[in-house]
From TrEMBL, chains A, B:
Keyword Secreted: no
TM regions (residue ranges): none
Species of provenance: Actinophytocola xinjiangensis
Protein keywords: DNA-binding, Transcription, Transcription regulation
Name of the molecule in the record: LacI family transcriptional regulator
Domain HTH lacI-type: start-end pairs: 12-66
Upper taxonomic lineage: Bacteria, Bacillati, Actinomycetota, Actinomycetes, Pseudonocardiales
GO MF annotations in UniProt: DNA-binding transcription factor activity; transcription cis-regulatory region binding
SMART domains noted in UniProt: HTH_LACI (SM00354)
Length: 336, 336
DNA sequence: CTGAAAGCGCTTACAG
DNA sequence: CTGAAAGCGCTTACAG
């Protein structure tokens, strides 16, 4: 046990540990770093010295020579896109579940004003070992820039333009198809859909997967931006043009939630009059009333996988890029 | 403009900048750090050399001598308590809004297994300059331990046991009173309340503030844990014992949301039959149908303030502890 | 205002 | 298996 009073004492260095243990600084360093070749008795002596002095290594000094920061960045979209979306909290939890225990620091950043420059310079100056990019805009130059400088990067979805990058995604197309099949099995035939932003791969793929499965190229649809507000406006528009609709697929749970509010406000019952299917299986799905039938993507697992892949790339920056694609599943609840 | 090809070139050091500029390393360092006393022409020369070489300072080396990590920790509750609660995302956003632009790293941690040890050692070894503690349990030994070691700490609420610590809070008691006054002004007289956990200051203070204002010591109540699920169970219990109730105050929006689901399921209309008031004004309030009348605490602003206070403490660790208490406001929407 | 020099606390070839 | 020594890239008194 270390003397608790030592906790607030002056910084103790390896030098001191070595002195107390009667060995060289090099040997003390080897014990601290678990180098296997150290003699057992010496190891014990050093361990005692460490405990007695309450030594903790200075990471900056170590970092200076190892050139590792033991920190990775998690880059989220702009601050304004975070509000009210449970997706990001889930991503954070998933990443944390693998990063936390490893002792590596998880540094959070949002894509605001000078974040791009900061990411690049943090990586270059060895303050960050790698970054996870969440929902980076398709024409953001950052991913390519990082890849070209050979910095470890993992992205949260297939980039719209081909790029030799490691990413994790869910099979969005299959997810859209799952929603369509469910609605068709319910014998709904006046179906509409609120698509996600068509400038994102998720928005595009969910939409085409859905359309291909229903096999109706003229299916009415509008484009939302994944938020609840856009779900509401979209629903209003669709209802105006197609008052007789009997099913809606929204490409996000939040949009489905917004749609349900509007449906109820217009006196329609869910699911009796209109069946509603969402996408994500976020916490918003359970907050719906009735609870939302939705296409589940295992966000926390996906985020954990991103963290693992990044750690692997940090360990071996020249490994070829990897892609991991998860399968979506349909979660049937009350709304359809 | 720096030569883009330099971006991926070998690491360039201050030494090299100095050589290119024809000055000493010390002077180059002064320019990099914006020391005012450097001659204007020399400054320009160094600046040119920096641009030409694409120099970025090695933070580890700087950190080693300045003993500053330029990183602060944000310690959230255990991972399991994060899920589905929009509060934490708002805190993160608020903290980020002041930390982000400063170039200081925001390191995220959750109160899991070995986090306490890691926080202490990160602080001691100079890997973190200070920490913000969010909703730390009242009998967690960590805050006291950090305070005693004189590490910069800011907490998100008044500690239950007296502690010379800097914290930011909202006047919870006043918030409870606000809810009570609104319900009374609505002439509701069969009021019940779903309190927050009584082992937290927020749970206690909201409850006593509410009770004192309604001036009815026998008011029926149950204790939830701020989650939607606990709101549902609590509502079921209260309804069973008091089927004629006409108003409920829930100490969190999430609990209010759960309560509303149960009310609707039992055929009661909100607000006609039962008025509902929540607490937080989180994104969940708008997701309710009807939208929730709630006591707003300005979480993002409070989090930003915590960040500012922490930065101040890092700059001057011996300053006396500060307390900042925000005023809650009532936001009237459809539910009451 | 500027420079030479010491020093921050570690790791890691290199000898032995 | 261990130690002496060099070196990682900065900052900062201290002289001048």
């Amino acid at each position: 046990m270390s003397d608790p009073r030592r906790t607030s004492s002056k910084r103790v260095t390896l030098e001191e540990v070595a002195r107390v243990a009667g060995v060289s600084r090099a040997t003390a360093s080897r014990v601290v770093n678990g180098v296997a070749t150290v003699d057992a008795t010496i190891r014990a002596a050093v361990q005692n010295a460490i405990d007695a002095t309450g030594y903790v290594p200075n990471l900056a000094a170590r970092s200076l020579v190892t050139r590792r920061a033991d920190a990775i960045g998690l880059v989220l979209p702009e601050e304004s896109r975070l509000a009210g979306d449970p997706f990001f909290e889930t991503v954070i939890r998933g990443v944390m579940s693998v990063i936390g225990p490893s002792g590596v620091h998880l540094v959070l950043m949002t894509m605001d004003t000078n974040t791009r420059d900061q990411v690049v310079s943090d990586l270059r100056r060895g303050r960050l070992d790698g970054v996870i990019l969440i929902h980076t805009d398709r024409d953001d130059p950052l991913p390519r820039q990082l890849i070209e400088a050979n910095h470890p990067v993992v992205m949260s979805s297939r980039p719209l333009h081909p790029l030799p990058v490691t990413y994790v995604d869910v099979d969005q197309t299959a997810g859209g198809a799952l929603a369509a099949q469910h609605l068709m099995s319910l014998r709904r035939n006046r179906i509409v859909t609120i698509a996600g932003p068509q400038h994102t791969s998720a928005g595009q793929d969910r939409h085409t997967g859905f359309l291909d499965a229903v096999a109706d190229p003229d299916l009415p649809w509008t484009e939302g931006d994944f938020t609840r507000e856009s779900g509401e406006t979209s629903m209003v528009h669709l209802l105006r043009a197609h008052p007789g609709l009997d099913a809606v697929f929204a490409a996000s749970d939040l949009m489905a939630q917004g749609a349900m509010t509007v449906l109820r406000a217009t006196g329609r019952r869910v699911p009796q009059d209109v069946a509603v299917v969402g996408f994500d299986d976020s916490s918003a799905a359970l907050a719906c009333d009735p609870p939302l039938t939705t296409v589940r993507q295992p966000v926390a697992d996906m985020a954990a996988e991103m963290a693992r892949l990044l750690l692997a790339r940090v360990a071996d920056p020249d490994a070829p890029p990897t892609r991991v694609v998860f399968e979506p599943t349909l979660v049937v609840r009350g709304s359809a």
